[in-house]
Write a structure and sequence with these properties.
The complex is a heterodimer of chains A (677) and B (156).
Chain A: H1 3-8, E1 13-18, H2 30-40, E2 46-52, H3 58-71, E3 75-80, H4 83-96, E4 104-108, H5 110-114, H6 120-139, E5 147-150, E6 155-158, H7 162-173, E7 178-181, E8 196-197, E9 202-203, H8 204-217, E10 221-224, E11 227-235, E12 238-245, H9 260-264, E13 268-271, E14 279-282, E15 284-285, E16 297-298, H10 304-308, H11 313-317, E17 330-336, E18 338-341, E19 345-347, E20 364-366, H12 367-374, E21 395-402, H13 417-432, E22 435-440, H14 450-459, E23 463-466, E24 469-473, E25 485-491, E26 496-502, E27 504-509, E28 511-513, H15 517-523, E29 551-553, H16 563-583, E30 585-588, E31 593-595, E32 615-618, E33 623-626, H17 636-640, E34 646-648, H18 653-664
Parallel strand pairs in A: 1-2, 1-3, 3-4, 6-7, 6-18, 7-10, 18-29, 20-27, 21-22, 21-27, 22-23
Antiparallel strand pairs in A: 5-30, 8-9, 11-12, 12-17, 13-14, 15-16, 19-28, 24-25, 25-26, 31-34, 32-33
Chain B: E1 9-14, H1 18-27, E2 36-41, H2 49-57, E3 62-67, H3 78-95, E4 103-107, H4 113-130, E5 138-141, E6 144-147
Parallel strand pairs in B: 1-2, 1-3, 3-4
Antiparallel strand pairs in B: 5-6
Helix pairs in contact in B: 1-4
The structure holds flavin-adenine dinucleotide, iron/sulfur cluster (2 copies) and FE2/S2 (inorganic) cluster (FES).
Chain lengths: 677, 156
């Protein structure tokens, strides 16, 4: 080896500096930088230094391809925009030139240099430093091959709201098996509780029930209601999921769903789930008439037999002997290739804002209570009445943004409450003729036909008061307030404090993540945002995928949204999964960690560090091993192994250290050298 | 050029939140001091303390580590591991006679370009106040000022 080859390690590197029109060239002296790369970095292996107007254009990419062929390049550095934009583009160009795509590295001199600095000399020097880092790093790159995993055909869907139902039907209709796990006795989710849906006001049950029935009878869907996922093992293509089917004490094979059992059951229980506390159910029950499946369950904690040792009325009256008090939980394991989490939302607990009086003042209702009240099959048979069950209100106040857009609770907008409040205003107006006040901060009606609906409600005479309600009180001070609820609000349009007496107040409560969303996320190896909504792989470009391959999210579990958006996400998740099933196998990014067996001391320090449980200890060999299909390549174990026995392809110590060295080889300005302290 | 101390800072960003925060700062054309040279790790949990020592030994005056906010790490909770490591590391470098303030951890989400830019500004000021690290001796080669890592000569 000659002296020069020793320095370059025989590498032949091409450095390409993009102008990005004037985006980069306006601040960085790109011609100078490309010249410099060829001259000053020549002894570090750079043989080609070029600049070009748009490197990502076809011509720019061809430049790389041709140079690889003609100049015999073995590494490529592209100094341009962020790798999050064009890493794939330049890897592909590198591959077309005949090199392994992973032998390419980018330096982000647009986002990190020309767009954030103004001084041309300094920006140019910094661009050089960034390229210097990339050149050192790329020498340590290795050729990598994506690895392939086969995809199991079946899919698991968790949550049987409209999102889960939609996903299940799309996949099942394409001919593939689906397991749909729902923790309640019936699928349907929140939509099953509503009467009308905005903006078209079509009846919720009329559009939902056919979908639910379709799920119930679909030959490709195995419906596992009254069940919960306990454990998830494996990885994309091949998950093993342990599911607990809770004891229902009803033999579904024998049950006809006739309903005699719950008619005969003597134990009345306040239904705080489906009827949100406004109505009753029995200890043996289905949550609502059109429940799917039709089989009831016995609520163990409230059943007289389990409490006192005698009763069994249901068993006595069941015409098909379908009751079995000896029933026990059953734990099953299913193998699936992909998973959809569609676990929905919980309603904000309005008691947390005591000044609005919910739970203290009888005629303050939550939005879900109102939904049940307006439902013809609900506890008041659809009558809008005060808590006494008979009196129709003459005036109603609807408070928007309860627990949303509020620094004390949730900063976010719950997205549906404006429309839902307008829907309520319309229903009150239509059914009672009462005077309606909507107290809002801003009206947000951006989707199709939403603003038209707002106009319609305006035309109906609903009064809109802009301002956040300070208090709802029954303490009358002025004439006409006696026996009323008084809404105290600063009317920010009129610029004055107002007290508006009404008979009924409805709180449009925020949509919040499920209280157990974090545990669910952990179980499935995905992340939650600070608010607790499931985190998308990319908020714009990949909204139904997650960082864990094969685990998808849909509906309100990812954030508040209306039914059309929920359904779209359900279909989108299904489409992603169908394409995986169609492909049969998946190529995964080879950015993974591996244990070098010879160096592992078996200390097991790494074992508990991996969030994806990819690292296991083999008692026989006394070595740790990494399952590369589970590893997501975070690199934490690489950093932690005291023996340096773990190496990360694509993010090895050698690569990182070389880049640090490269970044520091060039300084922006000479510095005064002071004596070390 | 002035004689004012112009520090060099190596910044490690995780691929998911904080690198995207840097992208965001760029897209929004938010200006911040040039002193920070960022490089990408997949996750803040990847930070091997050696990287920091290497940077300081190689001539950096400070090291910035950025990651996703607690609870938002794309590898679930690896940033907590980074947090612990940085604490230990600060103690280690203090024992080596380096001000622990030369290493800083900042959480920035992909949407917090402005915040990241601001934090970079703050850190640069902090490092300026501390003065040059001068851990290695410096020498100019080929007219380009080059840091010569001579780790052996580092005062303990
Ligand atoms: C008062 C009110 C009125 C509304 N009115 C309208 C309207 O008129 N029009 C409109 O477009 N939108 C409306 N919305 C919004 C609508 O409710 C949602 O868009 C939609 O219901 C979301 O469906 P989903 O499937 O994502 O969640 P959900 O309906 O919440 O369903 C989730 C399902 O998952 C189950 N589940 C949860 N966790 C688990 C677990 N760990 N294991 C198993 N199962 C689990 C739940 O039991 C539930 O069945 C309204 C919302 C509210 C609060
Ligand atoms: S930390 Fe390193 S040496 Fe210890 S078990 Fe894991 S791989 Fe082996
Ligand atoms: S790199 Fe991260 S994901 Fe991969 S095995 Fe190590 S700790 Fe687990
Ligand atoms: S991915 Fe950002 S800190 Fe882990």
């Amino acid at each position: 080896m000659t002296g020069e080859e020793a320095q370059t390690n025989g590498h032949r590197i091409g450095v390409y500096v993009c102008h990005c029109g004037t985006n980069i060239a306006g601040v960085v002296d790109v011609e100078h930088v490309s010249e410099w790369a060829k001259d000053a970095l020549g002894d570090r292996g750079v043989v080609v230094g070029k600049d070009y107007k748009f490197m990502c254009s076809d011509l720019g990419q061809e430049l790389i391809q041709k140079d690889i062929e003609r100049e015999g390049l073995d590494r490529v550095v592209v100094a341009a925009c962020s790798p999050h934009l064009h890493e794939k583009t330049f890897r592909n160009a590198t591959e077309r030139g005949g090199l392994n795509p992973y032998l390419c590295e980018m330096a982000s001199i647009r986002e990190q240099v020309s767009w954030v600095h103004t001084n041309k000399a300094i920006a140019t020097e910094k661009a050089k430093a960034m390229i210097s880092g990339a050149v050192e790093r790329v020498k340590e790159h290795e050729s990598l091959e994506p690895f392939r995993v086969p995809i199991e055909e079946a899919t698991l869907i968790v949550g049987g709201g409209i999102a889960g139902i939609q996903s299940a039907l799309e996949i099942a209709n394409a001919g593939h098996p689906v397991y749909l796990v729902e923790r309640e006795p019936s699928i349907g989710g929140h939509m099953a509780q509503f009467d009308k849906t905005f903006p078209t006001l079509d009846c919720s049950a009329c559009i939902l029930t056919p979908r639910m029935s379709e799920v119930g009878v679909h030959p490709n869907i195995e419906l596992l209601t009254w069940s919960e996922v306990e454990k998830v093992e494996g990885y994309v293509g091949n998950f093993a999921v342990t599911i607990r089917k809770k004891a229902s004490y009803v033999i579904n094979e024998d049950c006809t769903g006739c309903g005699i059992c719950w008619q005969k059951c003597p134990k009345k229980v306040i239904d705080d789930k489906f009827e949100v506390g406004l109505g009753y159910r029995k200890a043996i029950y289905t949550p609502f008439e059109q429940a799917v499946p039709k089989y009831p369950v016995i609520d163990h904690d409230n059943c007289t037999y389990f409490e006192k040792g005698s009763c069994k009325a249901c068993e006595k009256f069941c015409p098909t002997e379908a009751i079995n008090f000896e029933d026990e939980d059953e734990v099953i394991t299913v193998n699936v290739g992909n998973i959809v989490l569609a676990t929905g939302y919980d309603l904000f607990d309005a008691r947390r804002i005591p000044q609005y009086g919910y739970g203290r003042l009888a005629n303050v209702f939550t939005s879900l209570e109102f939904e049940r009240m307006t439902n013809a099959a609900g506890p008041t048979d659809g009558d809008i009445v005060l808590r006494d069950g008979v009196t129709a209100p003459k005036s109603v106040g609807i408070v928007h943004c309860v627990g949303s857009r509020d620094r004390n609770f949730n900063n976010y907008c719950s997205s549906i409450c404006c429309m839902q409040s307008l829907k309520f205003a319309h229903l009150v107006h239509e059914r009672t003729g009462a005077e309606v006040f909507n107290f809002y901060i801003d009206i947000r009606t951006p989707a199709k036909e939403y603003d038209e609906f707002y106009q319609r409600v305006l035309d109906e005479g609903t009064r809109f008061v802009r301002g956040r309600v300070a208090e709802v009180t029954d303490a009358a001070r002025l004439p006409g307030e006696e026996g009323k609820l008084i809404v105290q609000v600063e009317d920010t349009l009129a610029g004055q404090q107002r007290r508006i007496p009404v008979d009924m107040v409805i709180l449009s409560a925020a949509l919040e993540p499920r209280t157990d969303a974090y545990e669910t996320a952990k179980k499935f190896g995905i992340a939650c945002s600070a608010n607790g909504w499931f985190t998308e792989k990319h908020p714009k470009l990949d909204p139904v995928a997650t960082m864990t391959e094969g685990v998808f999210i849909a509906g309100c579990s990812t954030g508040p949204k209306d039914i059309p958006a929920t359904v779209s996400q359900g279909s989108a998740a299904a489409a992603r999964i169908l394409s995986y099933i169609e492909m049969g196998e998946l190529a995964l990014e080879p950015v993974r960690a591996t244990v070098i067996a010879e160096q592992c001391s078996g200390c097991r320090i790494c074992n508990d560090l991996c969030p994806f449980n990819a690292i296991s200890y083999d008692a026989e060999t006394e070595l740790s091993e990494i399952n590369i299909a589970l590893c997501q390549g975070c690199g934490t174990c690489v950093a932690a192994c005291p023996a340096g026995a773990i190496t990360g392809t694509g993010f090895s110590n050698e690569q990182v250290l070389a880049q640090i060295e490269g970044l520091l080889m060039l300084n922006v300005e000479p510095q005064p050298v002071a004596e070390p302290a | 050029m002035t004689n004012e101390f112009d520090p060099v800072i190596i910044g490690f960003t995780c691929n998911w939140c904080s690198y995207r925060a840097a992208d965001m700062a760029g897209t929004a054309r938010i200006k911040y001091p040039h002193n920070v040279r960022l490089m990408r790790l997949m996750c803040s949990g990847r930070l091997d303390p050696t990287f920091v020592l290497k940077a300081l030994a190689g001539g950096a005056d400070g090291v910035l580590l950025t990651g996703c906010h607690p609870g938002e790490c794309h590898y679930l909770e690896q940033n907590y591991k980074a947090l612990r490591r940085v604490k230990l590391l600060k103690r280690t470098i203090a024992a080596m006679g380096i001000e622990p303030e030369r290493v800083k951890l900042v959480w920035a989400s992909a949407a917090e370009g402005t915040f990241l830019a601001k934090e970079i500004g703050v850190f640069v000021e902090e490092i300026k106040a501390l003065g040059p690290l001068n851990w290695p001796q410096r020498a100019g080669i080929n007219g380009i000022p080059v840091h010569q890592p001579e780790i052996e000569e580092v005062p303990a």
